What does this fold into?
Amino acid sequence: MRAPCYPWSLKSLLTGRPTVGALLDLSEDNYRLLMRLVPDLPQLTGRWISSRVQGMDLHLEVREQTPYTSLIHLTYYFPHAEGHAPDPDAQLRVYHDSRQVDVLNLNQSALPLERWGANPTLEQRWKINLFLSKWLAYCALQGHSFIEDGLLCEPCSSVEMI
It folds into this structure.
């Protein structure tokens, strides 16, 4: 799998002024990356774990399925004194008909992202989707996959998901 190839330099990705078209392209790239991790997403329900010998388990919860969309929760759970801390912790709406991913909520501690309200700005959406793109590419490079063959992932009920 190759990481998304943006026609911009890293500096311009982080400091440039995004456009609506570029944001839509990034949302489509995120869909392709997510489908590499969860190719059967439109048919999945429940909670799943992708485990790797080295690295963190990746947790997926399919919260809602409709004919054209999926609502999912994707996270790592780090052991913490009070239990398990999710980070990064993303709630995503996946549009299968238009092949795009919309970030509904993203909490993470790696990069300082501004909190957004009901109407995030174009720049906020760009940074959030760029983070998601890098995280999904990293998960794929780590070998994570939610393919329902019993070898790469398994149904989950042991960790309480938020």
